[in-house]
Amino acid sequence: MTDIGNGAAEQTGETVAADAPAAPTTLWRDPEFLKFWSGEAISQVGAQVTTLALPLTAVLTLDASSSQVGFVNAASYAPFLMVTLLVGVWVDRVRRRPLMIMANVGRAVLVSAVPLLAVLDMLRIEYVYVAALLVGTLTVVFDVSYQSYLPTLVGKEHLVEGNSKLQGTSSLAQIGGPGLAGLLIGWVTAPYALLINGISYLVSVLTLLAVRRPEPEPVPQQERTGIRTSIAQGIRIIWDSAHLRACALQSGLYNLCWMSLQTVFVLYAARTLGISPGGIGLLLGTGAVGSLAGSMVAQWLKRRTGLGPAILTALLLCCLAPVAIPAAPANGGALSLALFVAAFGLIGAGGTIANIHIISLRQSMTPDHLLGRMNAGYRFVSWGTLPLGALLGGWLGDLIGLRETLFVTAGVFLTAVLVVLKSPVWRLKDFPPQIVAQPRKVDAR
């Protein structure tokens, strides 16, 4: 999933505290950041293992239908639509590191319960739904918290470097995590892969507990705006900007299609093509190579073409590539394998390039004091379509067939490109001026 839609995910900083600590010349020499980064990276990989392991547990252990798999994926991502805006306000009012620790402890307990129930022969599809929903909720809490925590940890002078490193690990986790999940499932079977996943969350908790840099006091209660006002500000700054509005809309469309593709491809590969869980994970994970390549050429592409054309080129790559997946012959052997690898590689490369530049565009345009609420509003729009994509993919898979659904999804991917073509984004040579925001107001409610 991407924050362009992600073929990858979104990372941005939040408001920088005035007393942010001085940092070394590079974050590679900052042990506090390195501990935080390692904890965040482990959590991101763990979240991606859960993304594949839960639906495959439903398929391989509970013999779930495509609609039931769609419900599992929808439950995983429904919290991004249901609670993101409230979480965005919450993390601005409390210390962020304790929230991250709490979220990972909760995720560890929930995913570890799946293999326990399987051993006791008590695992039911209803628990998988509930676990997916609660893990998804805690993932929202963790993700919004760490994006808000970074500026207070590294200071404004290292915000771009810190975001680049976090974006890199997030992108690799988004694409490479399913590959690791597939290997784990092939090794220990789907339910027990989640036990290893639970251990990874606890390791992340230990690294976050090791961070010693003090966190600033939250905003005093008397200086806060009301919840509705805070939420409205985050949404308004996106909607009032033609650039941010187009980026958010295309991201939502892209993620709708990506979740549909991922939901249906797992079933198509396992049931129609007879690919093993490890093979499915490796195919999905081939995008990691494309993601790395994209991160290395993103700046070069912007210098050669300008910001807008770089975004458009990247979107064309990741939105045209999906058609190769259903176009591959069902019994094509090496040819089909090559088409799958090429498709996921291009999705990873294009998604990462577009994500890097769109995140930078959002950061450059948004005033510091609105970054947090803008992030929550943007994620609400861009990731809120993920559960809908899962449901639509599963429903269409039952209605018209798996391969046919992949063709339909590949066609709808192109609407994300059309949104950018009809906006001023693709004409940008460089970052536009920062938005002039309305003054902050104290809301007595």
Spell out the key features of this protein.
about 450 residues, mainly alpha, Growth Hormone, Chain: A, about 75% helix, disordered C terminus
Number of distinct helices: 17
Cα gyration radius (Å): 21 Å
The CATH topology assignment is Growth Hormone, Chain: A
Q: SSE order, as H and E?
A: HHHHHHHHHHHHHHHHH
Q: Based on the structure given, which CATH architecture is correct?
A: Up-down Bundle
Structural class designation:
mainly alpha
Question: Can you tell me the overall shape?
Answer: globular
Q: Would you count the extended β strands for me? A: 0
Largest sheet: none
Total individual domains: 1
Could you give the distance between the termini? 37 Å
Instruction: Calculate the mean pLDDT score and round it.
Output: 82
Q: What is the CATH superfamily classification?
A: MFS general substrate transporter like domains
Which helices and strands appear, and what pairs or packs with what?
Layout: H1 31-60, H2 66-82, H3 84-91, H4 96-119, H5 125-154, H6 159-188, H7 190-209, H8 227-239, H9 242-272, H10 277-285, H11 287-305, H12 307-320, H13 324-327, H14 334-365, H15 371-383, H16 386-400, H17 402-421
